Structure formats: structure tokens, C-alpha cells
Amino acid sequence: TTAARQGEIGMRMALGAGRRGIMRLVLGSGMKPVLAGLAAGVAAALGAGQLLAGMLFEVGPWDPVVLAGVVGLLGVVATGASAAPAWRASRMDPARALRGE
Q1: What's the distance, CA 47 to chain centroid?
Q2: What pTM did the predictor assign?
């Protein structure tokens, strides 16, 4: 997605956007679907908790520690996956991006 938006990011940088602003833009666009997926996943886990209760060992169907741990781990991994493209986008040369190289 970041490569497809290279022209937009170059234009923003040429007009004065700072590196922090570019990183915030790319991280924000990368994390919105992750947050929506995490919310849907937690809702599905809470809904299916009773159905899976017989298969769980030493964990309750709605254990908040397990849910928080999974959400936290997935959030950290997704942030790390979005951070590399955001860092590269914030370091790009605006003139080169606008030329489409």
C-alpha cells in the first residue's frame, strides 16, 4: 500500500509534512484494518466461547488474560509489520517519489 501511495507521500513531503507525520499516516492506515479485525475476532471469540468450552483445558471460555494476551501479541506484531514501510516512507526523497522512480 505504501508503494502505491508513493506519489501522495512525496507530495505531502514536498509540501512540508515532517517525518513524524508521514510515519503517523502510514502506521494509521496500516493499523485501521488490524484494529477492526481484532475487534471482530474478540467478538467472535466471546460468541464462540461457550461452544468451545468443552475443548478448553484449564482456561475459561471468556478468560480476560488470554484474550488480552492474544490481542496484545497480535497488536505488537501488526505494529512491527507496519513500522518498516512507515520508516521507509518517511525517509524517501520527495523529488524522486514525485518523478515516479
Answers
A1: 24
A2: 0.74
